[in-house]
Design goal:
about 675 residues; alpha+beta; D-amino Acid Aminotransferase, Chain A, domain 1; OB fold (Dihydrolipoamide Acetyltransferase, E2P); 6 domains; 5-stranded mixed sheet; 24 helices
Amino acid sequence: MPIDIHKRIETIKEQIREHDYKYYVLADPSISDQEYDFLLKELEKLELENPDLITPDSPTQRVGKDLTKDFKPVSHKVPMLSLANTYSEEELIDFDRRVRDGLPDGEKIEYVVEPKIDGVSVSLNYVNYYLKTAATRGDGTTGEEITANVRTIKSIPLKLNKFKSLKYKLDDFEARGEIFMKIADFRKLNEARENSGEKLFANPRNSSAGTLKLQDPKVVARRPLNIFLYFLISAKEEFESQIENLQLLKMLGFNVNPEYKLCKNISEVLEACRKLEEKRDSLKYEIDGAVIKVNLIRHQKILGSIAKSPRWAVAFKFKAKQAVTKLNKITWQVGRTGAITPVAELEPVLLSGSTISRATLHNFDEIMRKDVREGDTVVLEKGGDVIPKIVAVVLNERKSNSLKVKPPENCPACGTPLFKPEEEVAYYCENADCPAQIKGRLEHFASRGVMDIEGLGEALIDLFVENKILNTYADIYDLQKRREELIAIERLGVKSVDNLLASIEESKKQPFAKVLYAIGIRYVGAGAAKKLADYFLSIDKLISSDEEEISSIHEIGPSISRSVKKFFSEEENLKVIQRLKKHGINFTSLKKEIKENFFLNKTFVLTGTLEKFSRDEAAEKIILLGGKVTSSVSRKTDCLIAGESAGSKLDKAMGLGVYVLTEVEFIKLLEEASK
């Protein structure tokens, strides 16, 4: 191979990397798009003629050709903890006090204030200066690998800058950051989707999160994703400070947000937060607060972490953005449980990067409490910067023709008379065959994170329900027999139908906990479904249980237990479950063979505040070791684990002679059981 060809390829690769950095990181391009394209085409031609010279870090290799069918689990070497939130300057001052109390006397404490990007957390692993893997945050301990999709983001270097003067050997390290979309890029994306008749994204964060889980990297590459890196971790190196972290990341070629500030005391922190909030609306990307970190890594290690968040960092949440618009009409929406929810139909208005035309009013009591009327001028806010809601009516702009609304007497979808339970604020349609409920149940069942049936979205479900193809979620698994009928439908075709049927077949692998969540028992969310599945291990045992046993499970109360028994008392629900069983849907959890240990086959109750775990995390560890966790102390309780401020449960346990463990003793037993 002529050496000059090899040199030319390396030269072009280096030039493209430099131009990517200038364009996507510095926003200061030094060549035209046409010149850039010429370079890329020359590289593609040389690599095509000399395929043995293609390397993984080449700009031509950013976009993979293979579809990602499974996002494999990735265990984080260091947990990706979430941050505790503060909402006032007083709470920040209290954070400073806790930091000072946690460090030795006389220590000089500095803080770094950074913008809190409203994006999606990601972890990037680099080995010998090349990108190896990328993973989502997940639950903080385990994420999902998204390497193929992350490689398409041009602000993420495939190969890093290397400096001889660098005092650290960064041959294997992790960089953490937030993937996001600039506001202008998000608007262009939505405009393009609107022009092509596609559903619009709600906001930049949601569109970023959804894009990262697409199966086709070529589609991801067309989405304007960006990234800011903010954290550096290495098992082999001891870094000095967060400021040094940010400077190292920048030297290596990463995109680091320039709005960070080193503060010598909490007064400077407060001032930095005020200035950042003032600057918020002028930034090209969404931020929802500031992140305050103790600067010295030595101090961070002394302070440590609690179960879910570090003690050395905190988020300061800015006030939610607001907008004013006109409420044209109040309509009523039927959910999958039959609950009727009022929805405000608004004059479209821009709020936090997205155009809002509808907002929830929660229930009729909320309408009365706020005196919301059709024709009013209202103040909108995004709850948690995500869900738009009406926070107030501008009364001095109320017109004489504004209209009070009454709750509907009949279901707006099927006309059935509505029912309002005495103890609830919601009105309900009790017709199980209501088309709106059927659509809602099917959408929930098929959605991402539940049965995850790709392709079976809102539009297709509407079509199938209206054409009497689907009525229950068991009907989904009969679609295999109706392939030719589906292909004949105008909007569908052979490829889309076969992809849908393959995804339906794949959904049969979902674990029992997800299936239990999917069937839509009222009050049973993903967390409650997991607890029920872990406790009963099969649908049959759950069906045959009584309310007392269900409500004895840790954090499963009487409302859930009543709802579960009501659901399984209805003959139609049992018939659907039998059909699902015949289709091979997973209604059991395989209990792994667990070696003999202290926790096996014992029943535990948790009380008080644990320092090292949340109650859920402690319960999870007990269950994994073969124990059961319930919420109330009885003669059947084998052991009570008592944290700080344990109250009446501890008194009752001692009165019944139940064995009591401190958190320290609990941790020792966990360590012994894990050996």
